[in-house]
Amino acid sequence: MPEAKTDALCINTLRFLAVDAVENAHSGHPGAPLGMAPMAYVLWDRHLRHSPQDPTWPNRDRFVLSAGHASMLLYGLLHLTGYDLPLEQIQRFRQLGSMTAGHPEYGLVPGIETTTGPLGQGFANAVGMAIAERWLAQHYNRPGHEIIDHRTYAIVSDGDMEEGVTSEAASLAGTLKLGKLIYLYDDNNISIEGDTSIAFTEDVGKRFDAYGWQVIGPIDGFDLEAVDKAIREAQADTDRPSLIMAKTVIGYGSPKAGTGAVPGEPLGEEAVKLTKQELGWPYEEPFTLPDDALGHFRQAVDRGREQQQQWKILLDTYREAHPAEAKQLDMDLSGDLPAGWDSVLKGLFDGAEKPVSTRDAGNTVMNAIAITVHVLTGGSADLAPSNKTLLTTHGDFGFEDEIDHNMHFGIREHAMGSIANGMAAHGGPIPYTATFLIFSDYMRPPIRLAALMGLRVVFIFTHDSIGVGEDGPTHQPIEQLAALRAVPNLAVIRPADATETAEAWKAALERRDGPTVLALSRQNLPVLDRNALASADGVQRGGYVVWEASPQAEVILIGTGSELHIALDAGKLLQESGISARVVSLPSWELFEAQSAEYRNQVLPPGVTARVSVEAGVTMGWERYVGALGTAVGLSGFGASGKGPDVYKHFGLTPDRVAEEAKRVLHRK
Amino acid sequence: MPEAKTDALCINTLRFLAVDAVENAHSGHPGAPLGMAPMAYVLWDRHLRHSPQDPTWPNRDRFVLSAGHASMLLYGLLHLTGYDLPLEQIQRFRQLGSMTAGHPEYGLVPGIETTTGPLGQGFANAVGMAIAERWLAQHYNRPGHEIIDHRTYAIVSDGDMEEGVTSEAASLAGTLKLGKLIYLYDDNNISIEGDTSIAFTEDVGKRFDAYGWQVIGPIDGFDLEAVDKAIREAQADTDRPSLIMAKTVIGYGSPKAGTGAVPGEPLGEEAVKLTKQELGWPYEEPFTLPDDALGHFRQAVDRGREQQQQWKILLDTYREAHPAEAKQLDMDLSGDLPAGWDSVLKGLFDGAEKPVSTRDAGNTVMNAIAITVHVLTGGSADLAPSNKTLLTTHGDFGFEDEIDHNMHFGIREHAMGSIANGMAAHGGPIPYTATFLIFSDYMRPPIRLAALMGLRVVFIFTHDSIGVGEDGPTHQPIEQLAALRAVPNLAVIRPADATETAEAWKAALERRDGPTVLALSRQNLPVLDRNALASADGVQRGGYVVWEASPQAEVILIGTGSELHIALDAGKLLQESGISARVVSLPSWELFEAQSAEYRNQVLPPGVTARVSVEAGVTMGWERYVGALGTAVGLSGFGASGKGPDVYKHFGLTPDRVAEEAKRVLHRK
Q1: Are residues A638 and A498 in the same domain?
Q2: Contact in structure between B124 and B168 (CB atoms under 8 Å)
């Protein structure tokens, strides 16, 4: 079969596999695959270096379908090129329990590099992947041994281009000169409300030029040679990320092609028939995969095996020449932490006498960890001096010569989160991010996706309460802890002092199957004397008894973070009044809930119903721990601008108040 | 005094008022006012049309200090030009209980148009203000009667420019050709981590050119005539928003001028002395306001009174020529709703027999409301056909001839929220926004600020549960309701059927002191027969008894939204088993909590401790209503892709399960 004919057949195969699957599911987006199939085909057939039989090959090119609603395009590519995604699963597209969810889900199908659907996320994830690639390359490549050397490709849509997170990530990618990043922009001028001109008339090419990208096109996205040439041009510019502007038609070939009526619904039986006629697809039978097409697509298996084999030879040579580096690379890619890595945390704050904020303690801890865990890499959204997240023994991650650990995300919290997710999904560095807790609101979408994907990302949030003080209500988190605790599979840890901070970091790094939030104080806090109190390693269990006046406590006081000290002081006040209190530190609800009921009942004996919690935030959810007869001391409205201690007093977050409440609930009982 | 000398004195007065206040507070940002003072002075002295003695003058120019950390610049301008902000309050800058919070707070000082601080928000708010201005002008201006005609100015910083929300808002402003929008960009190349080149090397001017803005400069931000000329150029282009790129030096005149060491800390006594020397300010005594400067600034009072007087004359002529329009304009600006406006909602769904989704019901309700409340104006982030938020009797809000009600925000959820806030702060239209509930995560910062400012914005979120179905976990909200309920002063209402949807809209519009979230279903739901069940007006109280098997209920089932139907079915199942249940609809926790304890105890009698709640989301917080002996049926992890009913069944959200749980808790009791 002549080459051009094979190409056309393969593209139709991809298109109608998507159309048939959407039709069969009575749900999904047929329009995007009809428009994107040619460019996706050229990329996957002629350029993408991947190994369908080993989707974990570390040096594979990464491919991100940022337009996740076009999921069937990706499922089609994966099935046709020989990934472990059976046709039966595609026939069960969007059905409960199938591998083929409505949007591509990381971990559900081998070859899906990241979960996409929420627009803009894939765009920014891919930036993170390119960063991880450069990080690994810089650390491990040696002259003659380009052991890490791959590109990151993405297909992005108008919707991605409109989202702010895309602008943030694109600007940073330009600053970092990520030359191996190549995006195909499916520029079809249609979104759900109709023609994009009603809301989106900007000159996208000029905008990306302004970010420092190479902008190629506009080209005809259906002209295979033009797409091919554009990709080659993109590859040739190693100094700038590239955006290929490919004009396409949404729902190409279908009766409603090029209209807003296409995006989100199956075509319908009659329209499917007409589309098949229009595009010269003779198979009425759904899910027909012509042998010639399948045969051609499946060449990817051998091609990929061959590419990977060559790489293995390269790696073997490297392993001989640089055995220590090769061993370290293996470990980095495995995600394992070195044995005994946490020895650096032992006794880190022994004998500490001066109060220290948990953000400062966090800095001490991070820098200790960096000695044994060199993959720890990240930065702040322009608040490093406040977040205290600089790794002092490391330089900056930047462009040209500066490829080290400290990243500068700029004032771009949303992209920071999404980029960290991309880094974690790529593998190699273990990413951390940092900003004020209040600005966790700017990055909830990537926090959620990290939790959904089960990625190990450490989200550091300092200035975690009204203790922020003078900056006032706009900068004082009130509902943020509650809102983060609501996210499934996200561990939120709010350590009470330096010693708990070390334990919190330990828990975060050892948590491989999901992200962790560390909520750290701006203000100084006493370092608890662990000789007099229980060991801070109780943090690993989420909550523990830190002190009690006697084993027969009448009342339980529960605190987190800076408010644990209020609870402890209240406990002593009660003791002076002849009331026996137990003080529980509960830095992480999620870690605590993961414990056995037996342990939880030891810490919070069901028989002791007089309980008071204290936390500088909304009390929502605390009912779980204080019960119907207890009370939660917290805030019911926004904060106030003033000196931190004044603000605490103003809102009644004091030992006196907590002791009073304890007496009240005891009385009530 | 020669003019140039007066200008210089006034600028120094502004600068050192800020420096002294920060120093006095031992907290704040002196660097930004030192750099921004000249441009702010030129704008306020020569261009801004405002009336310090009447900050509510509807046709005043709006001024937004998007760089809210420079709050002292704004407080200085307000005090010096004669607003009701006494010097004593500036001397109590950032202290508890003062008017001068760390960041400018809407409502705390007359003349503050919006709360700023979280970067990017002010930028987007101002876009909303310019939209509101155009909306009012288009509705009310008549030939010869340009009754609404003002500009919106903002000072924005590097930090604003890096935030994604700014990109979104700027792109939309360009599309809408908001020619009366004029931004001064304080381009000082410094952010907290140091020189912006480490993270922000893009060509901002080119980027804004790509958005369709007029880009002026770069100019020297300290050259008063250059600033003046640039503002005139900006005013002259009425077709495009304008960005004036003004090069300045952060912390100008201070020893650390132009470095990252300046942004967030007082200068210190010694540096203050040196800065005063450097800039030729002879007053060591803090808070010195030279008479010449104060006298010059205070001319703003008479100038503003005169401008307002002229406008009043214009308005009087208009009132004579167009009395009906003038009366309507008064009402629009007052924020009052027409008497009896809600009569259109009476019986809207009487006799409805076919199930209808609450998003569809919402459309019916909105279109009914639009008959009496013509200020209802808004749109969706490109999901109007799915959100069902089009006002069918109205056209589009766009540029040129199309100035009507239906806005097209594009796929820009974050800017949509911030723009709506700006519209509400401006006054006139009552804004609503719409997207899927899952994407509330993209717009939490403006939702929070609407709540903090007490703005009437209606945030519509459809596709409010796993009932979304096939789109899968990325599109199924799980923790979003909980996360929204955590926000202080935000009313979250999740109506159970069409009749509750009408009541929810009524509550939202009548709530003048804060925003409301409406969570609406994608899937069809039975319209409850209010002859057999309690009236839906119980929604106004947040929660009510919708049905009970007998007045002596043994168990209480509580549901919200689509799950109320599950609770009702479970109630019937229990009745068949001889168990007497009460079913409570609890569409809004916030409205319910605002009721008297007496009412709440009527609905949820403390004596009935066997309680089951059912809601398709995380159960966090439900402990408050089900108590220690009850149980909450919900979700503990992310959703799944599949047909809606299959997904409900999969997660055990069924009448059978709820009935079972009820029996279990009864037993437990």
Answers
A1: no
A2: yes
For residue A84, being part of any structural domain is answered with: yes
The answer on A84 and A141 residing in a single domain is yes
- Please compute the mean of the pLDDT values over residues A289-295 and round it to a whole number: 98
- How confident is residue A399, by pLDDT bands cut at 50, 70 and 90? low
Q: Residue A327 has which token pair? A: 């061993």
Q: Please indicate, yes or no, whether residues A273 and A352 belong to a single structural domain of this protein.
A: no
Task: State whether B98 and A641 contact (CB < 8 Å).
Answer: yes
Neighbours of B8 (CB within 10 A): 18
Residues of B in contact with A119 (CB under 8 A): 411
CB A39 within 8 A of CB A186: yes
The reply to whether residue A382 touches residue B206, judged by beta carbons under 8 angstroms, is no
Which residues constitute the domain of residue B572?
538-668
Looking at the structure, do residues A463 and A556 belong to the same domain, yes or no?
no
Does residue B485 share a domain with residue B553? no
For the purposes of burial, counting CB atoms within 10 Å of the CB of B238, is it exposed (0-12), middle (13-18) or buried (19 or more)? exposed
pTM (whole model) above 0.90: yes
Query: What does the block give as tokens for B76?
Result: 């200085």
Residue A161 corresponds to which amino acid?
M
Distances (CA, A) of B237 to A66, A206, B6, B124, B231: 38, 21, 30, 20, 10
Q: Which of A408, A487, A636 is the closest to B488 by Cβ?
A: A636
Count contacts between A and B (CB, < 8 Å).
349
Query: What is the rounded distance in angstroms from the CA atom of residue B535 to the CA atom of residue B520?
Result: 19
What is the number of H-type helices and E-type strands within chain A?
Answer: 24, 18
Peptide bond into B323 cis (omega under 30): no
Option in A193, A444, A628 nearest B385 (CB): A193
Suggest the residue from B641, B647, B669 to mutate for an interface test with chain A (most A CBs closer than 10 A).
B641
CATH assignment of the domain containing A542: 3.40.50.920
Domain boundary (B304, B323, B356) is at B304
Q: B479 to chain A: which residues are within 8 Å by CB?
A: 448, 483, 486-488
Is B324 contained in some domain? no
Q: Is residue A318 part of a domain?
A: no
Largest CA-CA distance found in chain A, in angstroms, rounded: 93
Task: Please tell me which residue of chain B has the smallest CA distance to A646.
Answer: B96
Regarding whether B177 and B38 lie in a shared domain, the answer is: yes
A190, A259 Cβ separation under 8 angstroms: yes
Using one digit for the tens of pLDDT, what is the confidence trace for A26-79? 999 999 999 999 999 999 999 999 999 999 999 999 999 999 999 999 999 999
In a domain, A324, yes or no: no
DSSP reduced 3-state for A107? coil
Asked whether residue B484 falls in the same domain as residue B546, the answer is no
Arithmetic mean of pLDDT, B223-248: 98
A482 contacts B482? CB cut-off 8 A: yes
Are A29 and A214 spatial neighbours (Cβ–Cβ below 8 Å)? no
For B115, name the nearest residue in chain A, comparing CA atoms only: A474
Provide the percentage of residues in chain B whose pLDDT is more than 70.
99
Confidence of residue B420 (pLDDT cuts 50, 70, 90): very high
Query: Is A174 within 8 Å of B200 when comparing Cβ atoms?
Result: no
The C-alpha of B262 sits at a distance from chain A's nearest C-alpha, in angstroms, of: 12
Decide if A479 and B488 are in contact by the 8 Å CB cutoff: yes
Task: Determine the residue among A198, A490, A604 to mutate to test chain B binding: the one whose Cβ has the most chain B Cβ atoms within 10 Å.
Answer: A198
pLDDT the model gives residue A195: 86
Instruction: With CB atoms and an 8 Å threshold, state whether A200 touches B175.
Output: yes
- Asked whether residue B543 falls in the same domain as residue B487, the answer is no
CA distance to partner chain B, nearest, from residue A144 (Å): 30
Active-site residue B413, yes or no? yes
**Among candidates A96, A199, A646 on the partner chain, residue whose Cβ is nearest the Cβ of B175:** A199
Number of domains within chain B: 3
Alpha-carbon distance of A96 to B650, in angstroms, equals 8
Can you give the pLDDT at residue A400? 60
Rounded mean pLDDT of A494-500?
A: 98
